[in-house]
Amino acid sequence: MGQFVSDGRLNDSAVRGLPAPATGNRITYDRGPGAIRGFGVRVTASGAKSFILNYTIAGRERRMTIGNYPAWGVTVARDEAKRLRQDVDRGIDPLGEKIAERKAPTVNELADRYLAEWADIKKRPGSAADDRSMLQRLIRPELGNRKVASIEYADIDRLHRKITKDRGPYGANRVVALMSKMLSLAIKWKIRGDNPAKGIERNQEERRYRYLAGDELRRLTEALAVHPNQIAASAVRMLLLTGARRGEVLSATWDQFDLDVGIWVKPSSHTKQKREHRVPLSAPARLLLIEMRDAAERRAKEKKREPSPYVFPARVGDGPMVEIKTAWAALCKAAGIEGVRVHDLRHSYASMLASAGLSLPVIGALLGHTQPGTTARYAHLFDDPLRAAAERVGAIVTGKGGGAEVVSIGHGRRQ
Predict the structure, then answer these.
(1) Which residue in 29, 190, 326, 346 could disulfide with 40, CB within 3.0 to 4.6 Å?
(2) Which pTM does this prediction carry?
(3) Which domains does the chain have, with CATH numbers?
């Protein structure tokens, strides 16, 4: 049971002189003129003192700690108790709000839920892996421990400018896009009511299309033949031979291929357009896959286990290979190639199709485009075939011939 100072009014001198109980704690309540109902000071057996407020709301008794003495003086603590009591009178539960705020999800928790309930289900494996990487490297270190409800426009704008300076404009834009998606889901999940990532001014992006030149393709082929990780090397070969996206290749399973007919049926869950895409396989692509399948079956037989369902299995675990960045960097270095991304192999495939004289609709169909405008970006590639055709006419008219070099991207050594 609490005890009172002689005149009923708490002051600093009275609080300072309160003795510690032998065990547990003792509360001394404020009394007298101007006292706040339920306001008091609690003293523990160790001598620690803190100001508290008792109140009842919705039939439930609450006790809230205001602050520790002497960091909080009596006058300041009494004023805070008065403010809290006014909240209670208006039907607000200050302790309940404090508990709710403490339990409110952080950006780290939102990121975990985003990955589990959205990215890993709705997105292609490669895209989900990219999101996981951005979260780990760029978002969690800066905002991870912040409450989702506390994130403001200025926080995301500051992060965007920092990443732009440190890593460049493209990566910064990708991070803002990811944050915007996460915060949109936070609204849907009733974590907050608005999206502060909306309206962030993105960096200007200039589309770049890098293509492998003939000599670069030859050097890459030579580097592929001697690369120590031939599964990763074959993934690059498949990218070159099919123009598929990285995620489509790395997540491919053997049941998607009919090697007798020469067809790769990409399921809708693995394509960007969320539509099934049937791709004819060239003879070199079929040969590559047949050799890979035979090698995989031999390895499985030696280890007395079932072959992996994935064409490009991970070295560890039962899943597919997730990334080939390390292998690609080593291949580019060995081949003396600069400024080429893995995705540029897709552009190179389109370039070779255009050079062979194939039309934009055919190129779009092979690449899996559903909109003609998407394929139109490759229209400039027809400058060279048209020029070659004009030169051929010129050679016929003048009686002068010409030639062209053909570069093979064969499998190289067996796996």
Answers:
(1) 29
(2) 0.52
(3) 12-102 (3.30.160.390), 107-188 (1.10.150.130), 214-398 (1.10.443.10)
